[in-house]
Backbone:
């Protein structure tokens, strides 16, 4: 299937989740006939804290390059640059016209969430292109059940379209989940109307899908619980717009999803004027 994603960037920090991201990206790149860019950003204190220099890092990156080339036979380039991690990832993605970023997140809470978990979270916040983050090592490299949570905000057409493209690549089922903060009939009816456009889109694309509406005080937790119960392996969320329930979408909802979901999260920043509930 033709895809607009032709260049995939994987930031590498040599953690287990980082290695997981490399092989997940390679699988996706092979299906999309895309190129892979591996990037390690040598942070200012890294030489002192780990003893790693640029030569050592380059050698490690070349091991990944050879392994991916041998296993998947796809084009892959490696880069090691110095600077602030998040800034350099964003700058690199713009300079190389990257279409998608795939990276691991360490996941954390409290102080660790503010410190360690912040790189992936900040990349998701600042990136103008879709970002897939993943917390744990995956048992499978395929996406078979994709969750699209819809809250009270105007949902993003881009999120739905990209999730649709990935579903086609893997022949996956789409789970359309309406999230409301009450069990009132009127709120459920409003959500049903809102979900109809997504259902029509999935039917038009001839994709298998199911629709549910659930309520809870913490809609991020509700979405994560749904993904566990229904064995979803990718959650697609919006960034860059406001929700009446959650405030800034990359606030309580997206932050919890990105840092705590046990399955990969696709974060898509909406394009102003290009999203609505009735454009499918």
Residues:
């Amino acid at each position: 299937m033709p895809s607009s994603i032709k260049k995939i960037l994987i930031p590498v920090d040599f953690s287990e989740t980082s290695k997981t991201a490399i092989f997940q990206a390679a699988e996706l790149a092979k299906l999309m006939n895309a190129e892979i860019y591996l990037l390690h950003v040598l942070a200012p204190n890294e030489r002192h804290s780990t003893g790693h220099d640029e030569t050592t890092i380059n050698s490690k990156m070349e091991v990944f390059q050879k392994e991916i080339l041998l296993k998947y036979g796809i084009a892959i380039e490696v880069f090691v640059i110095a600077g602030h991690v998040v800034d350099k990832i964003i700058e690199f993605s713009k300079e190389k016209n990257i279409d998608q970023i795939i990276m691991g997140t360490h996941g954390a809470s409290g102080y660790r969430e503010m410190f360690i978990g912040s790189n992936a979270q900040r990349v998701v916040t600042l990136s103008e292109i879709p970002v897939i983050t993943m917390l744990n090592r995956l048992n499978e490299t395929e996406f078979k059940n994709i969750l699209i949570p819809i809250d009270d905000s105007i949902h993003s057409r881009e999120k739905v379209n990209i999730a649709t493209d990935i579903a086609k690549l893997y022949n996956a089922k789409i789970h359309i989940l309406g999230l409301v903060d009450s069990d009132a009939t009127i709120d459920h009816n409003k959500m049903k109307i809102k979900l109809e456009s997504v259902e029509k889109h999935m039917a038009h694309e001839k994709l298998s899908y199911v629709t549910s509406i659930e309520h809870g005080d913490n809609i991020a937790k509700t979405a994560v619980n749904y993904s566990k119960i229904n064995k979803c392996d990718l959650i697609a969320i919006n960034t860059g717009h406001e929700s009446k329930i959650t405030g800034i979408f990359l606030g309580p909802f997206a932050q919890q999803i990105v840092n705590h979901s046990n399955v990969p999260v696709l974060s898509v920043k909406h394009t102003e004027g290009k999203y609505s509930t009735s454009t499918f």
In short: The chain has two domains: 7-134, 145-269.
